[in-house]
């Protein structure tokens, strides 16, 4: 059965995990569905923003416990070491595909975001969470480490001591603590409504400028110790925007006090 739905409307791709009866737990079909959804949006020029959510009471409870038995019978080296998606394996691509998208991704969290579900959420640019939402780097509970892109994402979000505590203990934290530690952007009563509202706002901005901004932020995060490289990339990206059709339309719309229309 389909695990993920994708609906594109008004330049916003609504990507929804649809296994609500199982708290959107991750089985192989869910892995495949999430990757297919993300990669299917890569070259869609109509999409300017993605809203990522999960149906039912929880965003994603992490790996389906029934999947552990199937995984235990496989050769772990053969299963996880091949790079099947550029720099990532299948499990890592579930989270990293959203960072690889050229458009912003906004996640709406409720219930729990545990283990792989937490790492999936971290792949988004921005995360809204409902009050009472719980998050956890859950892998240590099963004698494992985060292996779905968590270590490529978490060091940019939280302090080293916080990362170590979360990883070593597997202890769930409430949304308020997640907000204080940098895992959540904002706590709101209706995270999906907030995500859609923000997506609509971003979709009204210059598509080329938004995409350039996401790419530049990613570059800056990856080259934090090389200020010269970041400054040069900043200038290069700006030069690509100045005077181009989208930027000229923004200027015209501002002068004429209207909404811009991008082609």
From TrEMBL:
Pfam families per UniProt: ECH_1
InterPro entries: ClpP/crotonase-like_dom_sf (IPR029045), Ech1-like (IPR045002), Enoyl-CoA_hyd/isom_CS (IPR018376), Enoyl-CoA_hydra/iso (IPR001753), Enoyl-CoA_hydra_C (IPR014748)
UniProt pathway annotation: Lipid metabolism; fatty acid beta-oxidation
Key words of the record: Fatty acid metabolism, Isomerase, Lipid metabolism
CDD domains linked: crotonase-like
SUPFAM superfamilies for the chain: ClpP/crotonase
PANTHER family the UniProt entry points to: DELTA(3,5)-DELTA(2,4)-DIENOYL-COA ISOMERASE, MITOCHONDRIAL, ENOYL-COA HYDRATASE
Family according to the record: Belongs to the enoyl-CoA hydratase/isomerase family.
Protein name stated in the entry: Enoyl-CoA hydratase/carnithine racemase
Organism listed in the record: Shimia sagamensis
Organism lineage: Bacteria, Pseudomonadati, Pseudomonadota, Alphaproteobacteria, Rhodobacterales
């Amino acid at each position: 059965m389909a695990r993920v739905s994708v609906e594109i409307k008004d330049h916003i791709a609504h990507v929804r995990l649809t296994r609500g009866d199982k708290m959107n737990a991750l089985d192989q079909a869910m892995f495949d569905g999430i990757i297919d959804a993300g990669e299917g949006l890569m070259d869609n020029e109509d999409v300017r923003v993605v809203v990522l959510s999960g149906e039912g009471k929880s965003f994603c409870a992490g790996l389906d416990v029934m999947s552990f038995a199937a995984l235990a019978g496989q050769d772990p080296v053969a299963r996880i070491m091949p790079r099947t998606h550029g720099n990532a394996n299948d499990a890592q691509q579930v989270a990293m595909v959203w960072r690889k998208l050229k458009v912003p991704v906004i996640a709406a969290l409720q219930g729990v975001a545990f283990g792989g579900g937490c790492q999936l959420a971290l792949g988004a640019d921005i995360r809204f969470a409902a009050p009472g939402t719980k998050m956890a780097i859950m892998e240590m509970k099963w004698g494992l480490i985060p292996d779905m892109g968590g270590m490529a994402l978490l060091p940019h979000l939280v302090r080293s001591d916080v990362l170590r505590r979360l990883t070593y203990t597997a202890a769930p934290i409430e949304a308020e603590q997640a907000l204080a530690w940098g895992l959540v952007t904002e706590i709101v009563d209706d995270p999906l409504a907030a995500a859609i509202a923000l997506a609509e706002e971003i979709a009204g901005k210059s598509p080329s400028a938004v995409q350039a901004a996401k790419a530049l932020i990613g570059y800056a995060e990856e080259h934090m110790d090389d200020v010269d490289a970041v400054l040069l990339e900043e200038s290069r990206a700006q030069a690509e925007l100045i005077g181009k059709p989208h930027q000229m339309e923004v200027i015209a719309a501002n002068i004429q006090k209207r909404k811009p229309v991008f082609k």
